Amino acid sequence: MAINLSGPDISQAEIDAVVEVLKSGRLSLGPKIEEFEEKLAAYVGTKHGIAVSSGTCGLHLLVRAFGIGRDDEVISTPFSFIASTNCVMFEGAKPVLVDIDPSTWNIDESLIEAAITPKTRALIPVDAFGEVASMVKIEDIAKRHNLKVIEDSCEALGAKFQNRMAGAFGDAGVFGFYPNKQITTGEGGMITTNDDEVARLCRSMRNQGRDTGMGWLSHERLGYNFRMSDIQAAIGVEQINRVDAILGKRTQVANWYRERLKDESRIEWQHNDPACTRSWFVFVIKLADEYSEQQRNDLIANLRERGIGCSNYFAPIHLQPFYMEQFGYKEGDFPICERVAARTIALPFHNGLTTADVDEVCTTLESLL
Ligand SMILES: *Cc1c(COP(=O)(O)O)cnc(C)c1O
């Protein structure tokens, strides 16, 4: 690909930090984990940060920490990455989906209450593409129905809603640090929470069920190895040290695109709630409704042929074959999600892009449209 879809922003500081850990001999369960946890929690504004091996593992641990299991239901959005709801399935519970808001593309909070049953235990709203979900209203719904809220903030590090940071809403938040995210550790994730008990349980379950201060072969509960290594945490520390610069550059690239495409009537945008300061994760456009899914797919194929990395992002969760098979979901169940998902395209988006790259992407896109 001449212009890649995504790419990490790695400086000499990250490279030096990794070398230092390698020379230290403490490659895991060392001091870098705590340093990264403290820095990230301070940035998000939560009491605790619990580093884990991926965002997916963070979501999974929280589902377990809240005791969600067989016969329970958890409400989430079909317009997300599949990890948002697989975490529920892994514990034998049922993900119940509700459609999205046609403008923000996040879960439509006005549909949540109708989906609540006596089995509902939690809500997992997702901050899609760095736009914070309607978290204040969602917290209110959860309170009234005695539900837990896990904020899937994997795409929203640094986003704010009414001056609260993404990941600081609900009972706990989760971040992911795969290389296409705002900051990366290669693979990795972080749970953020103000709840001491949730933090304690997650720390224990990520580390084979050991409790703090317990011996290596003493296990208080069922756990797993969901640990992050010190090599990864060292990268995370340097990334969070540079987070303002990294996010600033991403905003600049997004603004180049928005400026360049602002008069393009064949393209629509995810609405940015004025109460939300977006943290740019991906740059996603939506073709106008007169375009078909096939035309969108052809456009993606043609862009790729011309060396421009792009993707159909997201594919609706409820239309993944094993969701259709297991829960009976079918086409037409969530029409707004399907209408949006059939027409979205993620364009190349990372800090290495120049104005010339953005111009080339947009010129090619317009000529193909
Ligand atoms: C990336 C992502 C995850 C999972 O994060 P990983 O670190 O890749 O496991 C979960 N939810 C959403 C919405 C994501 O974008």
> What is the number of helices?
13
Bound compounds: pyridoxal-5'-phosphate
Query: N-to-C terminal Cα separation, in Å?
Result: 20 Å
Largest sheet: 7 strands, mixed
Taken as a percent bin, the fraction of beta residues is: 5-15%
What is the C-level CATH assignment of the largest domain? Alpha Beta
CATH architecture descriptor of the largest domain: 3-Layer(aba) Sandwich
Structural class estimated from helices and strands = alpha/beta
Q: Based on CA inertia axes, which overall geometry fits?
A: globular
SSE order: HHEHEHEHEHEEEEEHHHEEEHHHEH
Unreliable spans are none
Helix % is 25-40%
Number of domains: 2
How is the largest sheet built, in terms of strand order? 1-9-8-5-4-2-3
CATH homologous superfamily descriptor of the largest domain: Type I PLP-dependent aspartate aminotransferase-like (Major domain)
Taking all Cα atoms into account, the compactness measure Rg is: 20 Å
Averaged pLDDT, please? 97
What is the fold-level CATH name, i.e. the topology of the largest domain? Aspartate Aminotransferase, domain 2
In short:
The protein has 369 residues and is of the alpha/beta class. It is 39% helix and 14% strand. The two termini are 20 Å apart.
